[in-house]
Amino acid sequence: MIKVRVRKAGTGVAAASGLIALSGAQTGCVAEPIEPGEESIAEAEDELSPGTGTLALDGFPGNFTVKLVNANTDEFLRAGQALSLELPVWLLWDKLYPGSPLPTDLARLKQITATVTVGAIDKATPIASLKSPVTSYSGADSYGLKALTKTFIVPSKADWLTFALTITDLAPAGVSASITAAELSKLAVFGGELPNKSLFMDWAQSTKRNKIIEGDDPIAGAELLLAVSDWRADVVVDKSLIDTQIGTAQSASRFGWVTIPIYGKIVHEVAYGVYFDDGLEWRPEVMLAETPNSRFLGAGRTTYEGKIQVPAKARRMLMYTHVKTYLVADYTGYANVTAKWYADGEKMLKADKYDNPNGAFTNYSFSISNALP
Amino acid sequence: MLLPTDLHGHTLFSDGRATPEAYVDFRREIGMRVIAVADHDVLAAVPRAARAAADAGLLFLPALEVTSFLHFGTDRAEQFHVLAYFPARFSMLPLLRQTALFRRGERVQAKWKAFVLAWMEGISEAERRAIDPGGEFEALAPADFPALQSMLDRIASRTALFPAFRDHHVRFWEEDRELFGWTPEEAIECIRQDGALDVVAHPGRYRDKERTRAVLLRASGIEVYTSRHKAEVAESFRAFAEEHKKCWTASSDDHQNARYVKPAAGTPVSTIERILGRALPIEAILSA
């Protein structure tokens, strides 16, 4: 397995093992392979290690996605990460022959092949296009059969990856289909902007998680992008206990007219407070910006984001977040409202809680490094 | 060991109002671990709900609520619903398409479209235009045609025809022997042949108690906790299930037309394992 370290470099282009094609790449941060045994495990753990992973095509015709299903790190993609794709052959078959029964003959199914074009984007500008063809298959039954592509390395400056597929049936020559980049979700890449880093505070596996996505500590003199997830805010205020009903309406049902509840919309306002050991006091609380379709979480999810400028002299950071939750009365979409418990658009404060690690007045603590390893 | 579940609820693909995504997200918020959408007779919501559940870290079971009848075609006729639960891998559309119940669902959608269009033949041009302003209904694929709740909302909000349509729509089930005129036992047999687990939905609701008991003895499972059962009724069905070694479940039967009633208990791990056909990972059980 290739171990990859990302380092800053002034010139040069990516030259990592597994890189299939890299056109128009900008110079700067590059991925380079490290030979096994070159460094001790302790040192290796101290540095940013983008790791390896497998992306999978998922979904159904008209609604495909690509997502990271296996990684030796976590669920985030990083610059320098070595990736391959697994493509369920039944999905490829269905794209070529919509609605046709899937053959049970694996040899027949292995005649379905594909090439994935991976596009790398840096600040809305395409910087690379990688071709990753299918090179092997795995799986013992027709629905479990997966086509596996050649490994590629995420370009070092990439912020996003896009994907497009060309699918070909080698049996009746010429039968092919494509899934365009517009039909597939793009994936965010982290670690391309070092020494700037990201602190992600979310709710995962039923626990609060505070994660520096690029690894290690925030860097003195650099920016730290703070992102609090919607589900983290939900948990801080225990959203499930908030009664969101704002009235009633009369509605048609198959049993006749019924009175249905109208539910309002829950809106969080998330702020943070931060302290550095730079001789100054706690900074005043700063509101985070509500960010729909978050880069951290993908479409349909929201984060609350803001940039913290880490002072050059700081060696420790203390912080908390503050969540205020409002119920907003919105009756649009209901034709026969029978009771409005609140005025149109009224915003009621329903919860006001702090996110502390160990009760009131305790803070999340982060050491600060003065430079990248 | 009981898992927090909601294994029976409806979306806008039958007589619910929620999108599959909203349906899943609500259940994540209230702490469910294993969920299913069980629309009436169709599996149309499964792909979207399965994806949303995967994103939310929930175990999703493809399911539907199969309509059958007791005493079909007589004055004692009453609908009898049997839930069918598939192993999670049936979320894959081509696999799902191969099941008899999916294909039956497509026939239900096609006949529903024909049923509604036939009814619209008998209303005025102005009313037709109000219900279908773009004149698009005819060209819609059956899978895209408004399902029951969407159609009721459309008719009620745009015309005065809701009472007439509501009275008329019951004929869709009561007069189609081919699709709905089978007995619960026949439905159970079909469910089993598809590789799914059969669970009698809200058994406390049926008028013919004797026939209901006979079906329960035949069925693999019983929906015990549901908004349709009072607490004492649920406990009696749980006792029945345990006495007769039946699987049992906990669900809401949510149609989004009343306040959500969270099931009073969870579903046994053994029921979920029976549906999946394999043991649940221990971490999944512990995290629940």
TrEMBL record, chain A:
It comes from the Bacteria. This is Uncharacterized protein. It comes from Polyangium fumosum.
UniProtKB/TrEMBL annotation, chain B:
SUPFAM superfamilies: PHP domain-like (SSF89550). Residues 5-70 form the Polymerase/histidinol phosphatase N-terminal domain. It comes from Polyangium fumosum. This is PHP domain-containing protein. Gene3D superfamilies: Metal-dependent hydrolases. InterPro entries: PHP_dom, PHP_domain, Pol/His_phosphatase_N, Pol/histidinol_Pase-like. One of its GO terms (molecular function) is 5'-3' RNA exonuclease activity.
